[in-house]
Amino acid sequence: DPLEAESEKQKRKKEALAQYMTGRIAAERRRVPAALDAFEKAIKLDPEAIESYKAIIPLLLMQRKTDEAQEYAIQSARKTDDGYQLVLVMATLFARQTQIDRGIELMQQSLGTRSIKAGSKEELLIHRDLGLYNRLKKNFTKAAEEYQLVFDRVTSGEFDASTLKDILKDPGKNFDEFGDTFLKAGHPELALKAYEEASKHREAKPGLHSFNLATVFKQTGKPQQALESLQEYFDAQLQSRGRAPYLLLEELLTELKKEGELLSQLEALLEKDEANDVLRYFLADKVLRRGEIAKAKELFLHGKETVSDPRALVGMLSVYRQEGDAEKLLGVLTKAFQVVPRGNDKEALDRLEPDMRFLSETFEAELDTLKEDDKTIIAVFDHARTLMEGDDPKLDFIQAYLLGKIATEGDFTDAALDFYKHAISMRNDPPSQLYREIGGHLIDSQRYEDAIAILTEAINHPSNGLQRDRWLFLFFLSYGHEFLGDTDKALQAIHDAMNVAPDTGLGRLEYQEAWIYSHARNWEKALEKFNGVIAKHAKDPDLVRDAQFRVSNIYVELGNMTKGEQILEDVLKDDPENIQANNDLGYLWADQGKNLDKAHKMVEKALADSPENPAYLDSMGWVLFKKGDYAKAVEFLTKATEQKGGDDSTIFDHLGDALEKLGKTKEAQSNYERALEIEEEKEKSSEKLLKAIKEKLKPTE
Fold it and tell me: In which region does residue 178 sit, left (phi positive, over 0), alpha (psi from -120 to 50) or beta (all else)?
């Protein structure tokens, strides 16, 4: 018998430990549901044990149960002494997933909890990261508020050296960042204090402080003093500030009406500091923009036959394009693709350092120019095809893949198919991504037979990796069959996909089944299936929203405008800023000639979010048409037809109506003819629309 009986709390802790170890064993054996269940029980029994939170959160994230993971992170902050660590980790994860607002919200909720007490070091860590995330969002006013809280405390003398190191990992860099943020928020005096603190931690590099002073002088309207401080930075021959000092020099010379001196000053600086690659490439970019190709080439190459620096690669990409050298262009293109981040994700791009962001943007702009230069890009494709010939092809996998990507982005579909096929042929276990990318492109390009062939190849491929994604290929395949009018094969593909898909994919497959019925104009069956998706997948709000929009559209097709509008109004009650709902309801009202002023504002909101969306441009054109502003309507409708996805029968029909109102009958008839052509090419045409267009094309008596 124990001398002292176990307390209820001790018993619960022992039970919690048993559940925790049970969860660990289940997780090791990859029995995720059992592990989650055990960890949940452990937390209920002993909510003050941090280990259970550390174990359950990664598993929840693996299962894409982000909301639950976030709740446990907050609970750990409230119930344990070390939960702030999980809060910071979760916030970092959100930031990496471009959900910075969510990370900010999480950290704000954690303030004042058990692990983040007021006045504690942990509280400063949260404020430090809140400053960082607001800075990433370019909300410099809020970032400055957060950073000032940290700055005032760490410079007050209340912390010892060890604690300060926990808060500021790199004091010189941190104080510089504080100063830059204060400056951008319009607090130059505070910025100066931060820069002075930074200089104390960088005694070996006084030139950095000179640059910081130059930025303060620039903002406070002292361009000449700024130039003098900037010169001290240049004299120190530093490169740590990247392009920023040379951009500042350009701004100051412009402000002083001396912009013509920029190139000569840059050249003089380079003569004194020949090892400064930042300066060399900055000068090369300026020279290149002036059209001095030979001089820019000399600067980029710097006496070498080939280059490997990303800045030189992007520069030489422009040089070789303008010289029309397909072989060398392919070489630098291949290298650049492997070292320069693509600019497809704006939020991810904004998180890059300024110099890398500039390089990425320059690379994207150069690629866009190349894709529009038919002669040069076709020469590159032709050269690459010669490398594919023979039993020992010289075009390697990465080159084939990258050329395929460029070809899809530039709508060179035949070339894309050639290069993707070549890349696939070079791997016994080809990446699933290859088939998905070329299959999706072929469907978007209305090359349905080719899409079906390549996706069927993927479905039947013996590779284990491809077999794991078989359901995805079947999903894409259903589009090909349905767009060709073979609804039975499309449905069979989706049903086959459902049999092999993971649970996480079933909702989207059920939605796709409903879409197939909708595209086939089987409205009754489509309504049944979409409503089933809404009822079954309430925990997936994005999927439910998509289904609601489809249901609304079906009711409109059936002539039940009231029901179609009601669904959209319900969406807007829950989410007033929903872009698609604003557009769709605005369009419906415009089509009926009612609530036109309100419809105009709603469509404006949609266009502000996606100014090149052809559907939103069409909506705006139609609103303006109904309001009698036919000239402005023509502008929007014409722009809609020029966008990708704008080759739509309804848009051309609307454009014809607007032109007719302006008395431009010949142009109107031409657009009606195009609308009729597009609609007649569809496997499932709208009889109502066909009849309306044909009536407009009848010769007037």
Answer: alpha
